Amino acid sequence: MRVGMFLNYAGGFREAADEVAELERSGVDLVAVPEAYSFDAVSQLGFLAARTSTITLASGILQLYTRTPTLTAMTAAGLDYVSDGRFELGIGASGPQVIEGFHGVRYDAPLARTREIVEICRMTWRREPVVHEGAKYRIPLPEGEGTGLGKPLKLINHPVRDRIPITIASLGPKSVEQTAEIADGWLPMFFHPERAGEVWGSALAAGAAKRADDLAPLDVFASPALAITDHPDAVLPLVKPQLALYVGGMGARGRNFYNDLIASYGFEAEAALIQDLYLDGRREEAVAAVPDELVRAVSLIGPASYVAERIAAFRAAGVTTLAVTPLARNSAERIALMTGFRSLVG
């Protein structure tokens, strides 16, 4: 099992690079750089590539709608080049609030877009002339929709690898099935090891049955919060604001992927209450309504022996990469926490 860490949206690039270099020395396998409506992930990933030498660098995630498919492919190839083949491309649809609210782009057809972007990226990395006729992307632009001067082109540079790993963030049954079919890795959010098979097992199996022979087994990511502590009850509240934000505030009633997920875990009434409180502007009450049981299930918080048991539960549920969010006050504490976590995972 690989050990990884998600960086904070708000961290400074130089400070983060110093920390990641120390994490690399301590045996951490991977760091992932998120991109919501913060600084772009690519700038930081390039900076980290220059300051590290062995650790895997991943985007977690680049949003489907914010770059053309070929720009996504070019960016991934560039990051793989400057990191000497250490980049993994994480992509995902994000949600309407960010895509339409921050980028001003219509949020539509995430399944079709995901499949086509993966196809175009892999075609580009093989240095084939990019010719794609899809439902959402047509390359070159067809005659009559532009100047008529477009022609098939291929990537000028020779990529370090012609098959950069692609991890897809997905939650719904159809998107998870497609991920299991076409992706190198799968990144779900709020992974509950005891309920994952019940919620996603059928979709993963259906996708795996259509998986190409040249794809390795799916790398399954989980991204729990981490705290190795003898006082877990004091730490659980730190996770609740994020859960309340996603379950309650990311979307609208009837269209919130994270709310649907938590409800499918058996917290249907709690998910509905959190959403009602959050959307009514009662955010502190929404945070308080997040059950401790849910936080414990999707996190790694407790004494070392308990965290080791939970690591075993994630492993038994099929997780192959634990890319955690460490709950620590400063860089020194994060490094110590990740070093201890590395030894627990083995």
Could you describe the 3D structure shown?
With 346 residues, the chain is an alpha/beta fold. Helices cover 46% and strands 14% of the residues. The protein has 15 helices and 13 strands. It has helices at 13-25, 41-51, 69-82, 96-101, 110-125, 173-182, 196-209, 232-235, 240-249, 257-264, 268-279, 283-288, 292-298, 304-316, 331-345; strands at 2-6, 30-33, 56-59, 62-63, 87-92, 132-133, 138-139, 166-169, 185-187, 219-222, 225-228, 300-302, 321-326. The chain has an eight-stranded parallel barrel, surrounded by five helices. Strands 6-7 form a two-stranded antiparallel ribbon. α1 (13-25) links the parallel β1 and β2 (30-33). α3 packs across α5 (110-125). The chain starts with a strand and ends with a helix.
